[in-house]
Structure formats: structure tokens, C-alpha cells
Fold:
Amino acid sequence: MSRFSRLLREAARFLWSSRAYTLLMMIGLIIGIASVTVIYELGAGVRERVVSIMSGMGFGADAFFVSSGGGRLGVRRPGGGSRTLTPDDAAVLARVDNVAMVVPHLTLRRDRVSHRDLHTSTVIFGVTPDYGAARRWDVSMGRFIDQQDESQRRRVTVLGSATAEELFPGQSPLGQQIQVGSVPFTVVGVLEPRGGVGGPGRSRDDLALVPLSVAMRRLAKEDKLSSIRINVERADNFQDTVEEVRQILRTRHKLAAGVPDDFTIVTPDAVVELITRQSRAMVVMLTFISAVSLFVSGIVIMNIMLVAVSERTHEIGVRRAVGARRADILTQVLMESVMVSVLGGALGFGLGALLSWLLEWGFDLPTAFSLQGSVLAFAFSAGVGLLFGLFPARKAAALTPVESLR
Amino acid sequence: MIRLKGITKTYQTGQVSTPVLLGVDLEIAGGEFTAIMGPSGSGKSTLMHIMGLLDRPSGGSYLLDGHEVCDLTDDQLSVLRNRKMGFVFQAFHLLAQATALKNVLLPFVYAGPYPTDAQERGRRALAAVGLEHRLSHRPGELSGGECQRVAIARALVTDPDLIFADEPTGNLDRRSSYEVMAILQGLSAQGKTVVLVTHDSHVSEMCSRVVRLVYGRIESDQRNPSPLSAAAMLAGLPPEQDQP
Ligand SMILES: Nc1ncnc2c1ncn2[C@@H]1O[C@H](COP(=O)(O)OP(=O)(O)OP(=O)(O)O)[C@@H](O)[C@H]1O
Ligand SMILES: [Mg+2]
Structure:
């Protein structure tokens, strides 16, 4: 057995025989590392969920949105305020080189919809036949809005599954009439349930789709769009196409140089930018919290180790008398503080991972286990043990054998 | 074995300097069983700590087996203590949370290579002090005499040449004292060099030599051609006599 492992065993024996001290030393680290782990895993989970929602929207590397209204993503809600995009804008953009598909879209205010004496309120989308394909929405019964609906301005609607269930509990809505405001529509299809949350207190299945032309003429009463979704042919020219679209829209909207855009271009990059900007702020905050908690835990460890060292003065003297070198005493005390802090860090990380799992399981909060986080927790707690163990260790090793035995 | 020449020791506490040893010349041959006696504060423990390499003298020369030890580094002194010496203290100084066997094995933690038969040697050392039935008792579960015998086992487990004992019987009753002395006499008979500090003239009569230290100087140094046998004294004690 090597000297190192013999010292390690002595250190472990101390931690085990002084369990109260060991627990006291670990508690700060456990709590600190656990809370940092929870925040970290929540952050990683939110990021993962955003990415999965984006890809669920078909918002990959080959598509971007143009929203009515100026401002910056994340500062002002895209599409808020007055609508500035027109169907003619969309038609012009469709002819731009490298543009594969243009999908215009109109989101209306939440409105009252009713069938006989049942009524609810829901969000109405004006969409074109391409919309379902672009967002990968399928119908569970009936059909989607088609080209005739759009060109002949038929008053037909495809309901979200939640809305359909509200208005037609236990019966098929197909062919039935509903009123949107004062306008009657015929139900031609119901969307497949998608589950999840689409906004504050709203299910993602709470909506009604109508042909874009009908939405503009009969409901919004203006020929304006909320947004235009643009798919490009070649992703390598993506940025050029975005810039070209911007210039065309500025010209069409007669914006003089220096006047800000009256629309917002939302690229996948911009969304990622927004998320990383927010997570960068979170990283700074996390770093601060971790630093404070690690520092406090370190101070606690240092003080308890100092007490333990002075209580063991005679023991250290005996160890020196039977042949321990200064370095042996120093090493053992450092081993004790590093072991206790690594153990505390590991327990804290385990507790944090467990809490995150409970949050996900109990409250459906998105979390993501992070290997990187566990390595960091391990490294930092080992560092704390080493750093704050140094002073007690040096103190323990400083005394001569007689001084310790007195 | 031990050759001290002009050993002085002065403690410096701030402005105050306390001269304790004022020039000690002493030679101890291998196998001798030496008692150091003297009034309290005369420097007995200080002298023993210097001989045991637990402390350094302020001046003078100390040849151990013909080698000057005053020039050695701290680490070299540790190695010598581990290989050549064993210590027994008045206050036992056992690790409270460790079993008797673990206490006895402590010197092996700091031995160069860890002996493969360490456990066996620990058991044998405890058997040599009559405690083979107390291997896994902790100090709190042992009597004072048993604790001191564990400490002796710890001192002899590495089979050292030199055993230093600072008032080993100071906290013990008569019977336990005789038991401890019988063990130390046995070690001396095996050829080990034993140096013992004591106030008890009964104890010093069991040693082959008595050095009297007074105020930092050796006042007398007497050979004792026929030391009392501790084993015989023990046998002569009435069965239940526990008075000191
Ligand atoms: N670290 C120290 N600083 C100052 N003085 C000290 C120190 N250690 C010991 N002394 C002094 O040195 C003197 C001798 O001490 P030592 O312990 O050697 O005496 P002793 O002969 O063993 O006495 P006792 O029989 O009471 O154990 C004492 O007067 C003591 O006060
Ligand atoms: Mg003394």
C-alpha cells in the first residue's frame, strides 16, 4: 500500500469518525451546488425546448419570418402594433431569386366564436393552403383550407382540437355552422391535437383557421398581413436573400434612408442570438451565485478544519513522534478538506439533479441534465477544498512534535 | 548508542529566555535501562525530547550511533523516529476513535514501504503486552493500565532500538505500574535501550542506571548492579491490592 493511499485512508477515517464536522462542512456546498445545478439545468432545458419548438415550426436553417411592425426581436413583440405588410408585398417577394416559398399569415385578435348556444373565445388565423404544410400541421378529420376556399373567399374554417371540443362536445363538427363575431363559417376540418401551451393560459389547440382572403375582407376589414414566412432555395445564400427582402420592403414601404424598418425580420440566427443574450445574463448571475456560495462554503470548511486541527494537536504530535513528516500532516489535512468538499459537491449535484427531475416531473418545467455542469461542480468543489484547506493544513504542519504534544 | 556533549536548551518566549539545560554530557550504551530523575522543572522531559529527536537542542552535539543528528533535516529526523525509536507518554496519547490494533499500527502509516505482515506484527505487539484479547477495543473502553500497554505496543511494533518513556507510570496504580515496568524490563532484556523519566523511586530501582538531573545539569549518575524485578514485585502483590 502506497504512502499516499495510507494517508488517504487516515483522512477518510477522520471524516468518518467526525461525522458531525463532515456534515457541517458539506452542508454549504450541498446547498450551493444543488441550487446552481437546478438553475443551470432549468436554463439548459428552456434552451432545449425553444430549439425543439423552433424545429417543430419548421423554422430550420432555410426559413425566416418578416413581421409587421418595427423594433427589435425580444424588445418589442413582432407583429404587435399596426400591420404594415400587404398581400402585394408577399406576391413581390415570391418572385425574388432564391425564394422557394412565401407563406403569408394573419393573426386576428381573440374573438368570440359560437355554435348554437355554445360559445368560446379563440384566436383566428387567416392562412393560405401552404400554411399547413409549412408548419407541419395535419388535420385529424375533414380537410385543410384549399386553393378554391382562398380564391373564392369561401367562409370555411378548420378548428383546433380544443376549440372543436368546446363547441361540439362529443359530436363531429364537420359541415356544421359556427359564428365568428357575426360572420357564419362552415367547419371543414379539425386539426390534430398538438398539446402543450401556446401562450399565457392558452392551449396550442385553441384556435380557428380561416382562408386568408376571408380573414382580411370579412374579419380584419383591411388587406394587411401579420407576417410572411419565406423559405429559401439555397441556405448558403440565406443572408443575401434576407438583405434583398429587406431592401425590397423598404422601397415598397417608401422608407427614406435613416427611417427604421416598419417590419421585423426574424431569422433563426436572431432567435438564437436572443436566447444566448438572455442565457449570457444568466451565466453571469449563475457565476456570481456560485462564486458567493463556494466562497461561503470554503470559509465554513476552513474554520471547521481549523477547529478540528487544534482539537487534534496531540494527535498530530503523536503522528509526528511515530514518524510523520510535516508533508504527511499537510497532505492528510488537505486530503480531508478536498474529500469533504468533493463529497459535498457530488451530493449537491445529485440533489440538484433530483430536484430538477422533480420540477420536470411535477411541474412540467423543462430541464436538461448537463454533464458539463457535473464536471464543473466537481472541479469547483475540489478547488474550494484545496484552497480553503491550505491554511488549516499549513497550521497543522507548522508545529514541531514537542509543541504539538505539550 | 547515544552520546550527548554539552547539550543546552534555552526556551525563548518573547523577551524572556528560559535556560533549561545548561550543558548535559551523557552517554547511554545499547541495552541500558536508564531512569532520569529529578525535581519538577529540572528539564527531564526536555532532555528526553531532545534524545528522542522530538526537539532540537540550542547547543551541543548529539551523536546517535556515531552520527551527528543536529545537522539532519526535519524529514530525516522523522524517518529516524519511525525506524529506530518508540515513545510512551504519561498521558498515553492514543487516538480515541481508533481501536487498540489501529493505534498500534499507526507507525506503519509513516513507514517507508508498508510491511505486508503489519496486521500480524500489530497483533504480536499487543500479545507481548498481554492485550491479545483487546484488539478491537477503543481507548475509552480500556483501563488506564491497558491504555499504557497499548501505547507500549505501539512503541515496539516497529521493533525499534530505542524506547523513550516519559513518566509512563505517572497516571497508573501500583499494579499497573509494575505491569508496565515488567514489560519495559522484558524489552531491555531483549537488548533494547530504554530511557525512562520518573519521579517514583520504586520505578527507578527497577532500572540498571539512574541519572539525576537538577536545574539543567546532571548531578549524579549511578549504576544499579541488581535492579528489582518488576515481575517478582507483581507476583508479590496481594491479589486485590490496588492502592498506589
Ligand atoms: N515551550 C517552553 N517555553 C518556555 N519554557 C518552557 C517550555 N517548555 C518547558 N519550559 C520550561 O522548561 C523547564 C523544564 O521543563 P521540563 O518539562 O523539561 O521539566 P520536567 O523536568 O520534565 O518537569 P516535570 O517533572 O514537572 O515533568 C520548566 O521550567 C518549564 O517551565
Ligand atoms: Mg516532564
About this structure: Chain A has two domains: 2-53+280-405, 105-222. The first helix of chain A runs from residue 3 to 17.
